[in-house]
Amino acid sequence: MTEHARFLLDLTRGRRAAHERQLAAWRTRDLESQVDFSRRVAILDLANGRLRPQYTLLKRAGHHVVGVDLVNRPGHDATALAYRVARWLYARRLNDDAGDGNGTGSPVATRKPAATSSDDRLICGNVTALPFRDASFDLVTSVAAFEHFLDVPRVIDELNRVVRPGGLVWACIHLFASPSGGHNVTLTEVPLRTLPRGVDAWDHLRQRRLRFHVPLNEWRRDQFLAAFERRFDVVNHYCAIREGEGWLTPTIRTELGAFSEDELTCAAYVIVAKKRRAA
Known about the structure:
alpha/beta, Rossmann fold, 7-stranded mixed beta sheet, about 30% helix, globular
């Protein structure tokens, strides 16, 4: 079975939906003391992706959501058709699931979502030059996107511009130093549990036998943290998903001595940052 076939199977079985719901629950847990989710929050889903899972969940919760990504341009080729099918499967899975009602894990699960507004939209745009007015959003959310940005400081500068004073950024970053950080091992396993035959763990940090299929900035955890701290107050940061602890042999530890065990096993790193208010 191909990776893409397994990906569609995971969508059908609800594994992908369950993972995205878990991400949404972590976000709500991290923010519920600072964001009133009982009202309609203005949210930017940064680099929403072709599947648009968090955009879909947040809209379903009744929030005012805008998604921005270069992939939001209309398409009619085979890839665009495949993603339309995938989005349909994902939405169907969400409707079928007996979940919390809004996919966010928030205490407002029974709140009826607001009618879709014309302001809820998907925009084809560049994350280094966001097409929004200053102080437009209460919250920016981003999942598995920052590792692909080739000018991270400029993106963070733009977020600082479009977030309202006191507003927040919740970013979940797929760290390059993790076993799956090369984005070239599997589409379906989160966390990573198996490796291709003949390929060693952390290949992308060692032999690089597998080529990269997507742009990656190869930033390390502390680089992301420092970049956010330059423009925001970081109120929390932590490793949300770990993988590969059992693959850290003495040989690999020695070979990758420039990285800590914490870095090498952290696949999903969450940063919660708050925009500073004017003095």
